[in-house]
Amino acid sequence: MRHRRSLHAHASFAATVVVVLGMLLASARAQSQLSLPFTANNGLVASAASFFNLTVTNPSGITVVGLDVHTSSAVDTIGAVEFWTTPTTYAGQQQLAANWTLRATGACRSNGLGVPSPVCLSPGVFLAPGTHGVYVRHAGLGLRYTNSFGAVTVGNADVTYIGGDAAIANTPFGSAPFWDRTWNGTLRYAVGAAPGPACVPLATKTTFGTGCYGPFGDSFYESFAGLATCDLGGAPGAETVLVATPNGASGYTVSFGAPAWYAPTGAPVLSNHTTPAAMTDDTMSQALLLPFLFPFPGGSVGVVHANANGFVHLGPTTSISGDFTPTAAELHALQPRLLPLWGDWQVALNTAVHPQSGVRFDVDPSGQAAYVTWLGVADRRGQTPAAGSTSLTFQVALRSNGVFEFRYRTLLPAATGVGAVLVGYSKGNRNVAGGPVSVDTGSRDLTASAPFAALGPDQLPLAVDGTQPRLGLVWQLQASNLEPISPVGLLVFGSTSVPGVDLAALGAPGCRAYQSSDVTSAIFASVGGGFAAALPIPSSAAFAGLPVHCQALGLTTRNALLLATSNGLSAVLGL
């Protein structure tokens, strides 16, 4: 990275490097350590603490300037480590907060299981000759320790560890200890009252704001917390009808239509088992052959399957059952489907009272439409209702021109039914196992928003993210969601962040600048809608604390400026 600095700034920077390196060198020469093995066989989740005693035998005392701790938290998790002391011994003091003093707190980045995670406590904690009770608390980080049988003693000429216990520590000293738990860690100290060098800050990274443009996609849905809140129910002759009409090749115009219903004449469809049987709970139907290819943005199909739980699977499948806990994530990641009313329904439960209930499939006499009907099926969400106490009747019409309709009659939920319901459509993974996930444009109130357009191609806002910029390592940055027309992308670096300046005046409404552009920029080739940048960070501690701000740009046809901007990324260089 290039940094524009004045001659005075360069001189100050050079002087800082000399001073800091000199301090670090002097500190490294003067520091000693006492280490206990990282042989943990037990631990506690965040937050937790270790108790032990330190007996200082050096007549000059020692100054604890840092620790290496053992944490179970994921690599790069950032938390804090607190160093508390009490006179003489920790024994009997584990839940007496008033007897303890917080002496220092240091930031800590987890290096993961089995690897020391350093903590700076500078300027340090002076411990005079004698015995001190110590409480090392991990705040926001898991704790690993070794189960022992009796007190463990480890020492050198200056200081001896004796201990210890461990405890849950969401509140300091708030829980009874677990006995005979040996701290895993290293005590870094200087002999005498010798303050350590200033702590080097940890590297940090935050993203903020949003990029442009999106999300866009042909999928649409409404998520209902329960069936009682679904406002799509109708009645015979007064059906609620939601119509999705193709709008070009990549989306739909969705509106409400006139009441309509096709009276089913076919026999109840059978299951998708090798030996087909009556559909019951969660059952996937056998293949239902359409007299035409039904086109949709994910392709076209001549066969569909109806599921007892209120959705139509677009395309062939060998599945014999379907999910009864609908989520938006599944809608967009699984096979293409129409979901007039996706929930947890039971097809056979009402047949004792209503023999015609079940799932039916019919082809229109014109050969240009087909119908799947859920006729008087039962609401099975969270309970098993009495036969006939609940009844759901709804229908899907598929037309040869790609139009589909959701038609609703009575939707009578179970009095104690609990569970989400989804209504909508998604091309999902385009019938490609492990294929692309359709863009989720969010749940919308279908009744309030229709008519509306659900238009592709799928597009998420331009985004940038990265790792923490750690000294001596490579800062990995990743831009994603560049539009297909953008063969390259641009990373712009600045020295200051701004709270999102709308670029409408430049011809890019909805796009924002989140930083200055006074440092540097670089162009990268787009591969698969994104690009990666690897930026080496100098190892010198003189760069610690340096703020860097970054934003990605890409080409677009959605504004006059022909540029789309990402969210903002602000980082601080450090350990």
Explain what the structure shows.
The strands form eight sheets. Strands 16, 17, 22, 23, 24, 25, 26 and 28 form an eight-stranded antiparallel sheet that branches. Strands 6-5-8-3-11-10 form a six-stranded antiparallel sheet, with no helix packed on it. It folds into three domains: 18-199, PHR domain (Jelly Rolls, Sandwich); 205-214 and 459-572, Immunoglobulin-like (Sandwich), CATH 2.60.40; 220-455, no CATH class. It has 575 residues and is mostly beta strands. Residues 1-29 have low confidence and may be disordered. The radius of gyration is 33 Å and the shape is elongated.
Give structural attributes:
single chain; 575 residues; mainly beta; Jelly Rolls; Immunoglobulin-like; eight-stranded antiparallel beta sheet; six-stranded antiparallel beta sheet; 38 strands; 45% strand
Summarize the structure.
This protein has 575 residues and is mainly beta.
Q: Give the helix level as a range of percent.
A: under 10%
Task: Enumerate how many helices there are, as a single number.
Answer: 3
Overall tally of structural domains: 3
What oligomeric assembly is this protein in?
A: single chain
Which term fits the overall shape?
Answer: elongated
Please tell me how large the radius of gyration is.
Answer: 33 Å
Unreliable stretches covering 5 or more consecutive residues: 1-29
- How much strand? 35-45%
Structural class: mainly beta
Largest sheet: 8 strands, antiparallel
**Overall strand count:** 38
Residue-averaged pLDDT = 92
User: How far is the first residue's CA from the last residue's CA?
Assistant: 18 Å
